[in-house]
Amino acid sequence: MCNCLAIDVAKSKSMVTLISSCGEVLIDPYExxxxxxxxxxxxxxxxxxxxxxISVIMESTGVYHRPIERFF
Length: 72
Fold this sequence. Notes:
Shape: globular
Number of strands: 4
Order of helices and strands: EEEHEH
Oligomer: single chain
Number of helices: 2
Number of domains: 1
CATH superfamily: ATPase, nucleotide binding domain
CATH architecture: 2-Layer Sandwich
Strand order of the largest sheet: 3-2-1-4
Helix content: 25-40%
CATH class: Alpha Beta
């Protein structure tokens, strides 16, 4: 089964949430800036859950999604 990191991408910030394969919200939706600090904080939160098989799902928004794509 695959868990899903869902990202609603905007110009300089995005909304993120992590949902289990059963539909349980593991990380409530919250806003992050497109910065190494915020990306790293999100990754730390994910790593604390000790999950396997995580897919990152986001829209392709011109160039706005690229910092997130590169990080993950």
